[in-house]
């Protein structure tokens, strides 16, 4: 027996359950995912830029590396979290369940606050 269009879609853990939601909700979920991916790319770019600038300045090597590392980490967490969040939300839409909460906001905010604290130390004491 031939598979239907829904049966061939990936990931199966998303498209293999429930029924098709209103396309507007799926598109909104996708736009949110893409916004998180853009944010992740911004964090990674900021971390790389900070690392490059840190190499130019004398005495900022360790602090700049720590802040850059935290920003790149925020980018990694945002990227992976974006996919996990999209999957959970899309499954909930297909199963007509409430949208799940996400710790992604708290984790990324914590990492950014740590990077800002390092930057504050650098700006204040450098």
Automatic annotation (TrEMBL):
Keywords: Cell membrane, Membrane, Transmembrane, Transmembrane helix
UniProt key word Membrane: yes
Protein's UniProt keywords contain RNA-binding: no
Location(s), subcellular: Cell membrane
InterPro entries: DUF202, IM_YidH-like
Segments traversing the membrane: 33-54, 66-87, 99-125
GO CC, one annotated term: plasma membrane
Xref: Pfam families: DUF202 (PF02656)
Membrane topology note: Multi-pass membrane protein
Residues in DUF202 domain copies: 24-92
The protein, known as: Putative membrane protein
Native species: Friedmanniella luteola
